[in-house]
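> tool_call: predict_assembly(chains=two)
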Amino acid sequence: MIAPALLGLALLVAAGVAGFAFVRPRLRQRLDGGAEPVRRILLPFTGTVISRRALDAALRLARAEDAELMPAYLAQVPMRLPLECPIPNEAGKAMVMLEAIEQRAAAQGVKVDARVERGRSYRHALARLLDSEPVDRVVVPAANSDGGEGLGGEDLLWLLEKAPAEVLILRPAIMHK
Amino acid sequence: MAAGVGKTYRMLQEGHAEADAGRDVVIGYLEPHKREETSAQARGLEVVPRRRAAIREVEVEEMDLPGLLARAPELALIDELAHTNPPGLEHGKRFEDIADVLAAGIDVFSTVNVQHLESLNDQVAELTGVRVRETVPDSVLGSADEVVLIDLTPEALIERLRTGKIYPGENVQAALENFFKIENLAALREVSLRQVAEDVESKRLVYTELEPVGTRQEEKVAADAPKAVGERLLALVRPQPSSQRLVRRAWRSAQRLGTDLDLLWVKPPGQQVEGELERQVTALRRLASVLGATFLIAEHDDLVAGVARVVCERGSTYIMVGESKPAKGFARLREPLPQRLMRATPPGVDVRIVAHRAIEREPGR
């Protein structure tokens, strides 16, 4: 008689734990003030290096908010080529970077949905991306003052003004290959 | 493409055109195969006499390489590039003789059937069931200034055979029952067309100057490297982020092989492409555009049948698929997708499975 009762109690406890685990993320969102949950975090980058600070920050945010990370490689297409032409050389760089980012994200349990976007300039590529992809937050590393690749001061001002999302700009740091 | 399409005839036509333009043209070696049209086309061109050689006490006539070099014309027409010489001559193969002729400053027009190309020998043997023993390294064709494809529909070629323009009457029926079947000739025609298209593409890339961004530097490297001629990759994708890893892997493989990449989504009939699905389809299409790949959507209620159809249409030789989720329940009894694909596609099509990142992380796998 006691054994079935204990078994029933154990099942009830297990169901309660599972139910709490399922409900908790939604409950936390509601308790946080009813703000819309962040679903997609954009991490635009250029060239063959990316700020580890920016990547780590984006991954931390994505993990904390149960959001998807969208790393986006911005590629410049010179005027003499059609904007929509294949860019295998740039794509080769992008694939290596996106693979590395996806590995780090997978290790932290963050979902990734990567992009490669073309434009006449980095800003143009970013504008095209923001036009076509809904994002809730943009994490962007500022370019180094030594003229390194990336989005410069004016680009960041433009982004703050135009981006239909929260923008998190990280100051330049040591770049890691 | 195949015997009887008119390679020798066309070579002789070109020889006449060069001679008419004032060049010193000779026939270094001609194999008319007792075809009247070919013999007639050879008239008016100087012929370097053949020399006699012996194979197992049987005397045969061969190209006289020393005689041709001594004659030193501007252009030599030398038939049958893949021919094997009898023992005792300067070289074992005719393409080696031709290398000597070219080294002597003599231009050469020659002929070869596609099945004699080394890299295509296995593929053609699988397609047609007939293997040729005389092969030519692909580099020989690759070093040619120009490759001209003599194309003829299988139906027209069989008609030529039936009317006795290729083989004497007594051999026609045997030829029709063996090599000269519509499916064999169609396969050879496709292989030939792709081979020449790839040859043209590789030459175009080699001649392209380097460009700083969006450049073709990688293609140039790929063009310089030995190419796996005739390969075509097909990656099976679904409009979801996890397909991107598969696309990256497939693209890198395509780069290494120096070949084209197709991305295929087999869409269930009637499925609406809207909302998030539409966004993912657009993302795949744009990624394909960036990579220079082709994104295909095939509507079919059976994935394997849909893939098999596209493989035949596109001439794919290599399929890449993502790792499937572990089967549950009765699905465990079903044959795995790679095996089903291999059974449904033509022989020789390879299937490669790309591991899923999330599964990779699981311990003990």
